[in-house]
Amino acid sequence: MHIFQLGLCLMERGHKVIIITHKYDDRVGVRYMTNGLKVYYTPFMPIHDQVVLFTYVGSLPLLRQILIREQIHVVHSHAATSFFAGELLLHAKSLGYKTVFTDHSLFAFNDAASFHVNKILKFILSEVDHAISVSHISKENLSMRASLNPRNISVIPNAVDCSRFKPDPSKRYPMNTINIVVISRLTFRKGVDLLIDVVPAICKKFPQVYFILGGDGPKRGPLEDMIRQHELQDRVEMLGSVPSHKVRDVLVRGHIFLNTSLTEAFCIAIVEAASCGLFVVSTNVGGVLEVLPKNMVNFAKPDPLDIIEKLSIAIPIARNVPSHQYHEQVAKMYSWHGVAERAEHVYKKILNTPNPSLLQRVKHSYSNGPVFGIYIIILLLIEWVLIGIFDIIQPAAKINKAFRVKDDYKNNKDKFGDHQFRLNDLNK
């Protein structure tokens, strides 16, 4: 959703935007989305959890053709765990394009998985022109993990299309109860173990409380066991996985939104909940403290007793929350147009910087260590040779250039009809 909304807003600002991703099920090839937003579903198949195997040079021929054909100036990749996005950054730098990376997560330094991701990320970002974090905590975390200069990292928070998350107190159901909503992936990282301790304690203390739990994951089994053990089938509703277009329908049923995450770079879920007029109770972890003003949220330590205490404060006032005032306040704070404008400043800034020479790139690669650094230098030289071969076999001048679909729609409305989608229209 972040990439989609950012792309639409950048197109409204007059820029050409394309999205490059891997295949999804049988979807391969080029698709056109809202406003002519062009998406390349490349034939690379995800191996696990929508992550493509890191091949480095395997994707070079196709990605080179796309970047040249679309006449790209800036390549902007997202997510530290997307190795395909990392490959695109490396290839783009070798082909002479400017590169930007946005990090959406926090990672630790003391477990095998994080160590692996951090090492690869340092390699990928050793030559990135600029990085973006979604919170100041995330900025600090990214700087340490990837050994980046903090001055080369901008903080641009996520946003919410508040027109899709409007409050409606009349939809609160069940009636005559205080409804507490939880929507998250049911994983250890999302604090489901804390939730397992909190739910029965709150139900015992407040007979009028009703829990609505949305989401799926490996911790669903323990949650269901807790419900059976404490005989809370009539007090806790398990919805399973909630599609993104139905999240608002679930949120407006509640009075309070509960977030028990153990780590969060930003937590867009509490912004959506506040936009729907819910009071928020959240663990004070990561960048959550930066997201909402104090009048909308109670912060708790990631401890069951403290979460129960903060919920006990929120439940008596839940019916008196000014839902529409919350919505208006969030709408003023978060806007995808603002995110696009700030991203545009980053793009303009890096376009004026010189590209590094091959020798400079070798020095950057060697900074990854005496052993791993040499391995990266070898990969860099192989890529450099391959690009030279591709330039001979298929020169950039002979690759057909793509036209701008958005301009074609705008300039030929009599032929195509006026199908323009405007984000501003939704806020009226």
Residue-averaged pLDDT, rounded? Answer: 91
**Mass-distribution shape:** elongated
Percentage beta strand:
15-25%
Number of strands: 15
* C-alpha-based Rg, rounded: 24 Å
Strand order of the largest sheet: 12-11-10-13-14-15
Summarize the amount of helix as a percent range: 40-55%
Low-confidence regions: 423-428
> How many helical stretches?
17
Report how far apart the termini are. 22 Å
Q: What kind of sheet is the major sheet? A: 6 strands, parallel
Structural class: alpha/beta
Task: Explain what this protein looks like in three dimensions.
- The chain has 428 residues and is of the alpha/beta class.
- 42% of the residues lie in helices and 15% in strands.
- It is built from 17 helices and 15 strands.
- It has a 6-stranded parallel sheet with strand order 12-11-10-13-14-15, with helices on both faces. Strands 6-7-8-9 form a 4-stranded parallel sheet, sandwiched between helices.
- Helix 6 (192-205) packs across helix 10 (304-314).
- The longest helix is centred in the C-terminal third of the chain and has 22 residues, at 372-393.
Summarize the structure.
This protein has helices at residues 2-12, 60-69, 83-94, 112-125, 136-146, 192-205, 220-229, 247-251, 268-275, 304-314, 323-333, 336-351, 358-366, 372-393, 405-411, 413-416, 423-426; strands at residues 18-21, 29-32, 38-41, 46-48, 51-52, 74-78, 98-103, 130-133, 153-155, 178-183, 209-214, 236-240, 256-259, 279-283, 297-300.
